[in-house]
């Protein structure tokens, strides 16, 4: 038993979870690999739950960060003006927003995904003067009272102890044989239904924690249409599906929709540093100074690495690389599902946001545990942890991608024996 793991088990509160799934102490990480304190090497198909889409300690970002730190660049400046912030904002406009014909103001809501969601919900209420938020079954948006109240997972909601209010949870796409949006429209048309016109709808285009559920583009378009018809603000939570994970910088680009508010965090800094932005249509920029602030809004180290990360998106070649490699993943996984019918598996996802759902109870967790023993880090998702979730770094070399996939296949094989 490791002394460091003993210390963690003894002193850290019981709320820890990944320590249980990956019971090793890690010391080092580079690109798509991690090492534990015994020097064992792992391929990382977890990527910090989507916070490390470019892998660990990317050379280009590291170089820029070291240069900045050793020249005494400002670390913390609240939301004062800094060169690191200005450079990030300019490059974000030039490389990301303008080429996509997107007109958003950038707000720094606080350092985490939860902060951006919370700011989006709060702003939507202020702008519309309405209270309710429509969210979807299987959605995950954060752990605070507001973000948890739009999270469609009863186990997570139990953490709040008491029921959470002012939200209506509707069925997400794909998982019902009726059209939830038709119901919603009926409710809104019928004043007596008890469903008031909401301030906003909050949607993930592909649900991460909910089990890699990818909404169809037509469904997302219908969500947008419904929002426009009723003056409801459309919030896309791209905290997990964004920054290239589904194959494009924003996950909603491919669906051809333009949300009113976009939540980004996780891989935005590119380096695992906490950074979040809430993108808002310019006309929504109504908060006065002080109506939404926070001590850790805008970490300059995170701005430096986030700026360097944007270089990946300069010329469209990265999208092509992601697409090519994701084809390899889907082919491989479809083959596993076909070769091992006992696992009753279904391949799910979009781009590099991929999973296999297994109807066999507890199977996904067993696969993840077996893979970990064999040097592959992978987590599970879904309300009953029924999906094993593949989140390799987007820039992983094909050879190591295939190595990781082979470990999965071997683990499945060993377990069905
Ligand atoms: N939204 C989505 C879609 C997420 O996946 C997460 C985190 N898993 C969050 C919000 C919350 O982000 P954070 O953990 O950084 O607060």
TrEMBL record:
EC number(s) reported in the record: 2.6.1.76
Superkingdom of this protein's organism: Bacteria
Principal EC category: transferase
Alphabetic keyword roster: Aminotransferase, Transferase
Protein name: Diaminobutyrate--2-oxoglutarate transaminase
Gene name, Swiss-Prot/TrEMBL: ectB
């Amino acid at each position: 038993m490791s002394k460091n793991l003993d210390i963690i088990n003894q002193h850290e509160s019981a709320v820890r979870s990944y320590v249980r799934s990956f019971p090793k102490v890690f010391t080092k990480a580079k690109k798509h690999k991690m090492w534990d304190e015994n020097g064992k090497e792992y391929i990382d198909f977890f990527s910090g739950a989507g916070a490390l889409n470019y892998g660990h300690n990317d050379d280009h970002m590291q170089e820029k960060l070291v240069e900045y730190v050793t020249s005494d660049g400002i670390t913390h400046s609240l939301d004062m003006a800094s060169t690191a912030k200005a450079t990030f904002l300019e490059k974000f406009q030039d490389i990301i927003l303008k080429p996509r014909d997107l007109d958003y103001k950038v707000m720094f809501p606080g350092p985490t995904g939860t902060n951006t969601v919370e700011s989006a919900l709060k702003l939507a209420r202020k702008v519309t003067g309405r209270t309710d938020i429509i969210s979807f079954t299987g959605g995950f948006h954060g752990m605070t009272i507001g973000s948890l109240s739009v999270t469609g997972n009863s186990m997570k909601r139990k953490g709040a102890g008491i029921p959470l209010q002012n939200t209506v949870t509707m069925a997400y796409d794909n998982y019902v044989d009726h059209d939830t949006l038709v119901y919603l429209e009926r409710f809104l048309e019928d004043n007596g239904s008890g469903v008031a016109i909401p301030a906003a709808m909050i949607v993930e285009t592909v649900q991460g924690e909910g089990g890699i559920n990818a909404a169809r583009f037509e469904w997302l378009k219908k969500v947008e249409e419904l929002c426009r018809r009723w003056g409801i603000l459309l919030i896309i939570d791209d905290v997990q599906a964004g920054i290239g994970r589904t194959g494009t910088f924003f996950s909603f680009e491919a669906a051809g929709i333009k949300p009113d508010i976009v939540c980004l965090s996780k891989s935005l800094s590119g380096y695992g540093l906490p950074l979040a932005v809430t993108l808002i249509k310019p006309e929504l920029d109504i908060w006065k100074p002080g109506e939404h602030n926070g001590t850790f809004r805008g970490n300059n180290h995170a701005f430096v690495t986030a700026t360097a990360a944007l270089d990946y998106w300069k010329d469209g070649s990265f999208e092509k690389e992601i697409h090519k490699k994701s084809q390899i993943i889907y082919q491989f996984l479809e083959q596993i599902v076909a070769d091992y019918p006992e696992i009753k598996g279904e391949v799910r996802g979009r781009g590099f946001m991929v999973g296999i759902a297994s109807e066999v109870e507890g199977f996904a967790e067993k696969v993840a545990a077996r893979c970990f023993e064999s040097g592959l880090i992978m987590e599970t998702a879904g309300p009953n942890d029924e999906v094993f979730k593949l989140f390799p770094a987007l820039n992983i070399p094909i050879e190591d991608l295939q190595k990781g996939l082979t470990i999965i296949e071997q683990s499945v094989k060993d377990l069905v024996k």
